[in-house]
User: Fold this.
Amino acid sequence: MVGFRTRLGAAALLAGLAGATLAAAMAIAGPDPARLASQGLPEAGVPPCAACHGAKGEGLESQGAPRLAGLNAGYIGAQLDAFRSGRRKYAMMNAVAHGLSPDQSAALAAYYASLPPPAAPPVSPAASTQEALGRDLALRGDWAKGVPPCAACHAPDGLGVGAVTPALAGQGRAYLLGELRRFASGERAGDPLGLMRAVAGRLTPAQMRAVAAYYASRPAGANTDGGPS
Ligand code: HEC
Ligand code: HEC
Assistant:
């Protein structure tokens, strides 16, 4: 019994030491983004990202919160900056971004970029007329109104290009539609050279709905659309 207790004591001591070492290592290594994502930063009034963006960064349509998993780290970081400065307005995210240090923002951006995008959305057997219209706009544009194909900047598969142009494929329909409206009204600014404000400002409400439906139906992780046909 004594031996058992001693061993238990030693194990507890070792566990305590390991814990202390881990805590010290984390302090040196900087913020722990997985913890920030799941627990937030109560002392700075930052709720867990997961509460709105989902446990795996998959996005929650019910919260109007986009998917973050698999987005480009540079893009995520730039958006957190835009929310912090107020160039991009959205009260909840403005408050969240204010509560994060630059190190924490950078760590979270790298963390979410490293998570796999969610599996492809269920594919409807026959694409709706709206999706077909959206596909046309996405891949061919509407030159009569000076709207280039979305694919020219967002890549043919809608997966985005580097840190500047984000992925649209597999993002929620309501989120995409909401952002197009915010660009058009100027509520969302901070887009490089005002490119997206110019594009969104030329779209009709019906075109916005159609292209949002199209990209929401596209898989987030693979190029399966052959291009204009
Ligand atoms: C209270 C809910 C809520 C919390 C908590 C929250 N977000 Fe958000 N987030 C949103 C919503 C809603 C949007 C969409 C804003 C808009 O429509 O412009 C958003 C947008 C974003 C975007 C822009 C993505 C894009 O595709 O442009 C990033 C990046 C982001 N959030 C990161 C975070 C991080 C990191 C955390 C945790 C530190 C976090 N959010 C916590 C609700 C939340
Ligand atoms: C000339 C290049 C260009 C074209 C064409 C373009 N976009 Fe964009 N788009 C951008 C850039 C750059 C951003 C990032 C803006 C920012 O940093 O806030 C963006 C952002 C977006 C976002 C926000 C995504 C998010 O995660 O928050 C949506 C939605 C969007 N574009 C939809 C479209 C649609 C739909 C079309 C076609 C009708 C289109 N874009 C055409 C350059 C372009």
